[in-house]
Amino acid sequence: MLPNHAPLVIAEQFGTLESLYPGRIDLGLGRAPGTDMVTLRALRRDPRAADSFPDDVLELQALFGPVQPGQPYRAVPGAGLNVPLWILGSSLYGAQLAAHLGLPYAFASHFAPDALTQALAVYRQNFRPSAQLERPHAMVGINVVAADTDDDARRLFTTLQQRFTDMMRNARGQLSPPIDDIEAYWTPAEKAQVSRMLACSFVGSPATVQRELERFVETTGADELMAASAVYDHAARLRSYELLAQAWQRSR
Question: Is residue 119 a contact partner of residue 204, using CB atoms and an 8 Å limit?
């Protein structure tokens, strides 16, 4: 969330990571504060910092490039490392900026899917090739909860459904254990809102997840998927990722 940080600091932090792990680091840049206003004030950041987001991205891009004659300051480490930049977003703003700068674009459809189709279309239609990227490249965020059976997966998914319901109630905290009856937890209005926010979620057995993911990729044309699995039990979360990997490998 770039408005929370100075570009020079980010360049040196990610320059350090790139120096330690060459070729393994991507840097995703978002315009939103990524938190509530109380925490934003605690970070000592000006809420208007988001207005300079495009300029900050360009500054960061320059800091990762070669040092220019007369350049007043440089990132150490960072200069000349050309860490790949991504634009993150959940609206048309990020799609337009990524297209204008010729950068890859990641859409946060795992919690804000409403503008997904339109944002991908805007990004692809307006993309300008750049030194980093010749053609559009889009990543789509999704939620995946996989288990041995559809029923088991649906029960595990109630953890995420509770989490989003609690966020609507302005009650934040750690993940809650899964429950047997999610209908008793939320109101009809909360159910409608949470279900809309979690529309890009794939829940079920490996066969179910594979089938639905293949359809989703065909519909969106996504070049990459980023899967989040907010499962309460750690072993069940690892199992979910294992089943997802197996299902995805079969679909390839």
Answer: no
Lookup: tokens for 46 = 């000006």
Assess whether 151 and 243 both reside in one domain: yes
Of residues 125, 151, 154, the one with CA closest to residue 138: 125
CA distances from 172 to 163, 165, 169, 182 (A): 8, 10, 8, 18
Q: Which residues of the chain have pLDDT under 50?
A: none
* 244 plus 147 within the same structural domain: yes
Each residue's pLDDT tens digit, 106-158 = 999 999 999 999 999 999 999 999 999 999 999 999 999 999 999 999 999 99
Based on the fold, state whether residues 178 and 123 are members of the same structural domain: no
Return the beta strands (E) in 7-108 as ranges. 27-29, 85-89, 105-107
Whole-angstrom Cα distance, residue 183 to residue 83? Answer: 46
Same domain, 122 and 159: no
